[in-house]
Automatic annotation (TrEMBL):
Domain of life: Bacteria
Stored InterPro entries: Hcp1-lik_sf, HSI-I_assembly_Hcp1, T6SS_Hcp
Pfam family, one: T6SS_HCP
Lineage: Bacteria, Pseudomonadati, Pseudomonadota, Betaproteobacteria, Burkholderiales
Protein name: Type VI secretion system tube protein Hcp
Amino acid sequence: MAIDVYLQIDGIKGESADSSHQGWIEVNSAHWGVVQPRSATASTGGGHTAERCEHRTLSLTKLADLASPILMQTCSMGKTIPKAKLEFMRADGNGKPVKYYEVELENVLIANIEQQVSEGSILHDSIGFRFSKVKWKYSQQKIGGGAGGNTAGGWDLACNKCA
């Protein structure tokens, strides 16, 4: 695996053998974002005004594994998954993996899943997740190792407020 990112989805088992993430899904790439669209109205001062934010689909790629058929089935069913979590790891000064970023999702829907294989590679999945609540947490790592504090944020899309 080129990056140390792991996905845990309620009720869906992956193949990770990492000691801290056994049964999780190993992720090869991740992409997501938030957009603040321009409002149709303008302020009296001529500036932009904020509208309801848009959370883009969280897109992941991974190699096909035990989870693949269940992810395809869950997407087909349109079933809402109570919770999912991504953990991003990196090595500390001693080479020990430490979690530096975490994304927690609630009321998760698999928006899309596609499988692809090409010459010289093996089957992989591209998956898109939508959700009603998200929380982000970053943990700082000191130069000499160890934790250096953290910061967290979140958004409840259903209520359109901080989570």
